[in-house]
Amino acid sequence: MARLLGLDDDYIMDQFGEKADTYARFSYYPECPRPELVFGLKPHSDGSVLTVLMVDDTIGGLQILRDGVWFDVPIVPHTLLINIGDQTEIMSNGIFKGPVHRVVTNAEKERLSLALFYSVDPEREIEPATQLVDEKRPALYRKVKVKDYIAGLYEHVSQGTMVIDTVKI
């Protein structure tokens, strides 16, 4: 990704720092008799650099938002889904976008997923790479401390808003 941006090959890896975070979330979505009334997970984008998602091989439910329309993510057995996270969006000055996604419930089947989140050291600050900021493309995001950003993520998801909007210039 760094090479695609015209940055040093190790630019993104160097941002992680010595105490980068990796955390996992197992999610269980039981069958729901009225799925039109209940989200499995509200719309959000991931606050990480990158998310690796192992989705259920037999039941869908993950949707992405594109141009105001929700699309089902296809079920492809034995595959991993990779999401760009907000930290990458900030460092790339918006060239790479973290997708807004949600999980819907199913009336007939339960669903399992496992997400692995890779994040910059919480004590570090992230901002757009200086090589990606100039007169033609000014900085789109302000510098932010990672632990503050992650803390805001949970609050904003619960309110149905996007935390990335809080660091936009």
Automatic annotation (TrEMBL):
Gene3D superfamilies: B-lactam Antibiotic, Isopenicillin N Synthase, Chain (2.60.120.330). GO terms for molecular function: metal ion binding. InterPro entries: IPNS-like_FE2OG_OXY, IPNS-like_sf, Oxoglu/Fe-dep_dioxygenase_dom, Plant_2OG-oxidoreductases. Residues 19-120 form the Fe2OG dioxygenase domain. The keyword Repressor does not apply. This is Fe2OG dioxygenase domain-containing protein. Keywords: Iron, Metal-binding.
